[in-house]
Amino acid sequence: MQQHISVERIIGDVAKAGNAQAHDLLDRKTKLKGLRQMAMELSYRYSYNKQKEIGAIFGVDYSTVSQSRVRLKTKLK
User: Fold this and answer.
1) What is the pLDDT along the chain (77 residues), one digit of tens a residue?
2) Residue 1 falls within a domain, yes or no?
3) 14 to 41, 63, 67: CA distances (angstroms)
């Protein structure tokens, strides 16, 4: 059974794991693109929010969330 986790908690946990600040992951011009992509992917998987809602939190369009997730999957392969 999958549990609902807030996007804010996911961002905080990803930032903590990467020794960064949560607000750094929300910055569109961050140098922490990998962590930002991970936060978007985990938010999509575990928050029950749609890409449009996740994009609004990160300050980007839903298509940017989609592209970010694709790029992360490519990096992980």
Assistant:
1) 567 899 999 999 999 999 999 999 999 998 999 999 999 999 999 998 999 999 999 999 999 999 999 999 999 99
2) no
3) 11, 22, 19
